[in-house]
Fold this protein.
Amino acid sequence: MTVPTTPKGYHSVTPYLIINGSVNAIEFYKKAFDAELVMQLPMPDGGIAHAELKIGDSHIMLSDMCPEAHFQDPQTLGGTPVSLMLYVADVDKVFAQAIAHGATEVRPIQDQFYGDRAGTLQDPFGHIWTIGTHKEELTQEQVMQRMADFMSKQQDV
């Protein structure tokens, strides 16, 4: 029997978030993004050694910080260069839900030139999420033209 290289239900790339306060983060993600807890490996001190959540059809792994192993959360590092893109059926609903549970708006929701309705927020643990609903199927040429039009309008401002 051959074992698959990627576990059933997972994709080739799975985000792994380092968090200061993973127990609280799990509750936030459940409330804000309707995440489902798949597994949790607690530490003796009450922290999380490893946990897995499922949001929609995608898994996210997370754990508490472990500075001695160079695993630090975005707040300790002064920010993060990585953001997550979350597609949902109703961006307005999920965005408002996340804000109601402690996220902070970074960019408001609006229709984007690339065919999504999307906005960006920061969760209470320092991670950046763009939440979106795909609204239009566009060709690469259409997206490039819309981007050029968008950039042109930005220069006029």
